[in-house]
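FIELD: query
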Amino acid sequence: MDMNTPMKHCYVNTTVLNEEPMVAVRPGALSAEDCAYLIKAARGELKRAKVSLDSGAAELPGRTGSNAWLRYQDDPTVQRIGQTIADWIGIPLANAEAIQVIHYGPEQKYGAHFDAYDLHTEKGRRCCARGGQRLVTCLIYLDDVAAGGSTSFPKLGLTVPAEKGKMLIFHNVDRADYTKAHPLSLHGGDPVLDGEKWACNIWFHERAMSAAAEFPPLKARASPALTPDAPRTSCIVSNRSAEQFEQVAARLAPRLQQQARSTLLLYWDTFGNTPDYDTRGYGRVVQLIDRKLLNAVSNKRKLGEAVAAAGLHHLCPPTFSSVSDALASGLAPKLWFVKNPYGTGGKGMSCVPHAALAGLELPQHAILQAGAQNLHTLNGKKYTIRAYVLVWNQLYFVYPNGVVIVHAPDYDEASPDADVQINHAGYMNPASGVVMKSLSDIGLADDVTQRAHQTMTALQPVLANLIRASSPEAYVILGVDFLRQQDGALQLIEINAFPNFTHTAHINQTVNVPMLTAALGMMLEGGEPPAAKAGAATTVAKVTAPTASPAPAPSG
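FIELD: result
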């Protein structure tokens, strides 16, 4: 396919956040008057936003906001705004879709997705039939969001706060290949925690929107509905961390690959921009536990309440839903952490000294968590541990290696500096000072695995519904985050039901891929950890057997 429109290597008056793919911001791109005009023009036209599917579009839970489209030819002000932005981007306005104004209320969001399409698919060709591929996205924030509503790039570790008039520019494709989305351009709109969010998008294409795109013929593809006897190259269907799962399928032993022919394992996140996967026509299907149960353990407020109700206060820092409750507890940690109940990786988090707690206006829906005391450090720096736990077939298995993320600045227990206490998003950038290691790298794998297993055993009353919902055909891999104290004790910080398996090359190869391979092998075998079986396949036997604990018997 001809790449008719080149993307610029720099944009004037912008700050570059990432070079490839380009991610940049331009503060004050639109005036307050223009922002207000676009909101007013769109307000009466808003409809529930839809997501493009293989055939048509539909409303999905991963996108819960509303949108309206403003055409340039219908309004001189909209035309002027669009032309100004087109001049900055260096692509003709004729190549741009109409301005899409979007609105999100409390807790509304748009899950992680790509703006570009795979032009090797029918869906991609349908969506790009006029104008060809989406090259550049311009997102302009039209108001200041009280809390939440940032735009996040999970694979780049970037979060861009929503600030009125600021324009976010990012490239959706590789400069050398316009036929598919750049894998690092994955992005999403974080939930609005307080107030509302107004923004607008302009997508610039490679051709004029009036021009028909030209595509080479599609290669013939087999039907995705397979019978147990039908051959396929992989038994895994995933819409997250696909590269890691492809490596997992390739590492399976021949006898497990034979078993995989009659098994489909789904790692399918319906919280993003996709519906449930159609499993009709497959043989055995192993899929994730119901999303409602997963959301319950991922919600830090609900998790804190459940831990407290079970009398397990020692397992995690005390959690409160209001400033008054925190003050009434009589606790006086040096710091309090303000957290988004749903955010991960430090999103929506800040910290305040205890002396400032009484004057804190807690954002709507936020929680307060007391700062953990007497933390162990690595070379004087704070670190967070992620342990992986497979819940499957009424059992849970703690994988015997995990991930450690070490903050860049030296640790000070009383410092409210976010870089000291919270931020670790730069682990993919060697210049950030944030370092990612495995537990085995720092000699803590055995100790942390044992303690994590003890924590999971103690948490059985809290996780009982989740464990009971697991079966030979229902599972989840939890990312359980801990802080480690000087005496080795672990403090539970949060549980992620959809952890990120895309990290540095070292972590992918030493932790994530071996862990996923062991988990898949176990579920294919239908029983005990593969490494514990006599004659286990070499690719699995190299992994130390995870520790298994039975779920509590159902009551009643």
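FIELD: remark
Confidence is low (pLDDT under 50) at residues 48-64, 220-233, 527-556.
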